[in-house]
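Predict the holo structure. Ligand: zinc ion.
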Amino acid sequence: MLKLFVHIYLVFVNMKLKLLNYNKIVQLENFPAMSKKCLRCKEPIFGRIDKRFCSDYCRNQYHNSLKSSESMYFRRVNYILRRNRRILLESFHEGQELVCYQNLLNRGFDYTYITNYHINDNGSASYYCYDIGYTYFSYQKIHLLKRDIESNLME
Ligand SMILES: [Zn+2]
């Protein structure tokens, strides 16, 4: 009787040890890789060493937000370029070919945004926002230029 009891006890202990071992393995597999954090939510990442996100949700959210900040950047640049063109065009419509550098600044012109530039034969540069541009005439004045869009498309 005692033998049977000891046997049952040993079987039980054995089972418990196996279970402990199993838990250890499971814990190791799920142990977060050293300093590996989800790129989006910064939670520790479990599993494969090359994982960058904790879940499909985080991966999708991350890529969506990248796409949206990219498109926000493009929208902002396009807005500045179109505003620049409009300001140059307004000056043109006012019949001015020579305008003050500062005057354009006051109207919101941003000299750091152009679509292209052209080096003239005399070595000076013309800067364009689409079809309307300018060259530096003097320290304070710029000379407005307008290109023929259709002849440009033919080039
Ligand atoms: Zn995450």
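The helical segments are 2-29, 56-93, 101-106, 149-154. The longest strand covers residues 141-146.
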